[in-house]
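Section 3.1: Structural characterization of target chains.
Under the original work plan, the team committed to producing a structural model for every single-chain target entering the pipeline before any wet-lab resources were allocated. The record below documents one such target. The sequence was received from the expression subgroup and is listed exactly as submitted; it comprises 258 residues.
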Amino acid sequence: MAFVGEAQTPATNATENATGLDAVFGEGVDVVLSEAVRFHVMLHTQGAGIGFQRGKYDGAMRIRGWQVELAFVRHLKEEKTRNPVYEEALAYVYGKVNAHHVLRVQHFTQTLLFEKYRKGGVTVSRLGQWGAAVGVSKPVYLEIGYPEIPYTSLQVERYDPEVHFSNRIYGRAPWVNGLESLGFNPGLSAGQALTFEFNDTRSATRTLDLGAGADVYLRPVEIMASDFVTARRVHLTFYLRYAWGAQWSSKGLGDAGL
């Protein structure tokens, strides 16, 4: 997100009302921005997510506020496979017992590092975020064939790695199975990022974030069965976020002349 710089001393009559952002955007009046909001989509090293951020300017160099983010998290050992006989069946991950999501509610502070000096330039900031994380796990359900290949019937069952071997798995069951058995795992979350804002208007923002974050849970998160891998309490991811949003004066965009 762009930041408002300090007003510059006019050099000539032609630039009598010019300020730092006027030099960038070519507008006749500078505005002290006070509010900011944005939505983002995210790709990270174990999945993807979406989020919303709401902040207020704390002077010209900093934005403080809160954000909410929902992300889907895969295990690094996941590998999709198919039933070799019934190729029309849905692919599944052998050994995966839970689909894991994380809901983060965080406070953030965004601090200006390098200001935008021309239209088409980039503002660089540092973004710190910390708060609560809630892991949400949905059990994996599969279609199990009976009695043996060729199957004469299929049953939707919760995957049990001690019972359901690959020769009995027809394929993945519809995603809605297991919603009545969600598990919740509270924890803490924190992260750091570099933020690059590059929009060419003052009131709208487009941003790329490059960062890393960690979620620490009360209990180990079991995505793959414990017979396959060891469940971990700490999850570290690297991410790329694209955000679009707006910023304005508390008096309103109309009063600001934008």
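The chain has one domain: 34-256.
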